[in-house]
Structure prediction request, 525 residues.
Amino acid sequence: MADRDPAWSPDGTRIAWFSDESGEYALHVRDQNGLGEVRKINLGTPGSFNEEGPPPLAVHKFDLKKRKAEKLLEGATQAVLSANGEKLLVRQNDQWRIIATAEPQKPNAEALKLADMQVWVDPRAEWNQMYHEAWRIQRDFLYDPHAHGLNLAAAEKLYAPFMENVSSRADLNYLFTEMLGNLTLGHVFVNGGDRPEPPKLKVGLLGADYAIESGRYRFTRIYNGENWNPQLRAPLTQPGVNVKVGEYLLTVNGREVRANDEVFSFFQETANRQVVIKVGSDPGGTNAREVTVVPVESEQALRHLDWIESNRRKVDQLTGGRVAYVHLPDTANGGYTSFNRYFFAQVGKEAVILDERFNHGGYLADYIIDYLRRPLMSMVTARDGNDFASPGGAIYGPKVMIVNEWAGSGGDAMPWYFRKAGIGTLIGTRTWGGLVGIWDYPQLIDGGSVTAPRGAIYGLKGDWEVENRGITPDIEVEVDPALARQGRDPQLEKAIEVILDQLKKNPLPTYKRPEYPNYHQALPK
Prediction:
């Protein structure tokens, strides 16, 4: 960390300095006792759109009187207009500039010297302002103007004395959580704010499970991932590596690895960096070989994909290939990507199990529901190939959806719509029960946020059918921890049992192609 220009406040009670932490600009403020805050200014970090940040765009000025647009500058990734409209703070190529809006930007305009920037804050004054702001956000954005019967002004007054003992941003977030819990509403979230962050060591991971045998760490499971996909790169299955289950991890960068060592300590600060490991089928090192691997920072995506593919293979095996399996992790980009990838690839199977356990929501998944309830309208024949159904892109047989208590928001709406549309059977446990949506709130002064749910969804009979209730499955199946430790999945197993029974009782109909028509009499001799 490179610290820049420490400076004392005019009254000599606080000191502030600026640092550059891996491209993240941070302002540190401490009092004489060493207490204080760290403020991430975020002027030098990439945007959140993707790893490289948002794409550069041109900025135009539109004159309402002349009804004419004029280009101000090119290559902007962020821009903020001043209140009077005369100045524009713009980011180009990771540099910030202030330009006048009266005329187009001049070439090579001087960039701001962020290293010299200092901001003095009074945390307690900010905390008190944010306390009142949190209540104002509820007052102005909450979908119910009566706040579920809670008197917002009285509640703000009731909790105000606690502010006297708030001594950190974490304390303030705790108070926010307690006081806003009185709304008895899902999607009331408290996030972020100025909080010190200790340095983090990025431990590299190999995408594997280990067992201790013969005084060594032995690979018991290796996650394959998708090595063509940068987000699912599996270190041990890369070309030229090919470590196998049952082999032993013998050394890491020349250091011996034994059973009494903490295996992850050998991989500190190795994420996304080349590491040389020695592996072999013999714990003594006979016929061992060295390979170069690049550990990943997180195994979550690898393990998630393995869970999905294991479920798919299990369904395929236990149903003789008759039933498709589709996991829906959310109702946003991940869920739609997964649906498009797995559902349409299995069109032609007789039935489908949709697994929306752990679905963390996003949007209302009417697109998915529409495809699930497509009716068969006709068959199509041609000179070549088998007859096929229309509309295409559909599975016409029985459908089962698995739900659990970790599915919420859009993950509540999807099984709700699934049931309302009469598509099939719900199996598992009751969903979370949060269906008042959130979007677009003013940020708190230090970059934190609170939400005020503002988009409530109700049924056509005039009832709040989901919020604080959830969707109760048709067949309730709890996950037995003892079975789960054995690798069993009672909910998936029940779904397979139910859908095979439905196929047995209601087999898919077959359709006979009619005789080809003959519209003409025999030609005369």
Observations:
- Residues 57-112 form one domain.
- The chain has nine helices and 26 strands.
- The chain has a mean pLDDT of 88.
